[in-house]
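Pilot study result, target chain (173 residues):
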Amino acid sequence: MRNVFLVGMCVCGLGAAADAPFAGKWKMNVAKSNFGDTTMTYEQMSGGEMKATMDGQSYIFKTDGKDNMTPWGSTAAWKAVDAKTWEMTEKTNGKVTGTSTLKLSADDKMLALDSNRVKADGGTSNDSMSFQRVSGGPGLAGKWKTKNLKTSSPETLSLTQKGADGLTISLGN
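Predicted structure:
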């Protein structure tokens, strides 16, 4: 009886020590990724301000090149190049982490985003995304649906179980 109890304790201990099935390092497969449900909205506000909403989070900015706080703990400085082109500089803790150019198509139905990101190791990554207008306009104002993404350095997501009901999430390249 005692041996059965000890074997049972060992089996239970192994089961509790095992990582959750989702734990590990996951690399984004851009070719198999579907961004169809991802949308972002730019709303024209009074006083020349714009409101950007992504993933249920919003921030207000002007296209004057000044830093604006985002809900993600970074800043975004937007600058209008012309009526169809904008440049954006993202910073974290005052350090540039990415630069982007957004450009509208001639018919205002597509928005192209080309970005250069600084990776944690100091290298860079080049990304391009295209968005299709769902509603709104003219110009940047409107609702945009992600059409596709190309990246020179796909993100990796590490999920590590922390205790019985915790999870550590880290993003990398």
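One observation from the pilot: Helices lie at 2-17. A full batch analysis is planned for the follow-on phase.
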